[in-house]
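User: Could you check the structure of this?
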Amino acid sequence: MDYGIDIIFKIAAIGIIITVICQILKKSDRDDIATLVSLAGLVIVLTLVISMISDLFTSIKDIFGLY
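Assistant: Sure, the predicted C-alpha cells are below.
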C-alpha cells in the first residue's frame, strides 16, 4: 500500500476526536469511561501503525529476497 501524508492526518484526527471526547467525559465525572475511550483510541491507532509496519517488513523481505 502507498502511505502518504494522509495516514498522519488520520492519526491526528483520531487523536483530536478522542481528546475531545475524553475532556467531555472528564468534565461530567465519567473518568472511568474516559479511560476506556482513550484506550480504544490507542488500540485503533496501534492497529493502523502495526499494519504499516507489517507492510514495511514485507517490502524489506521482497527487496532483499529473504524468506
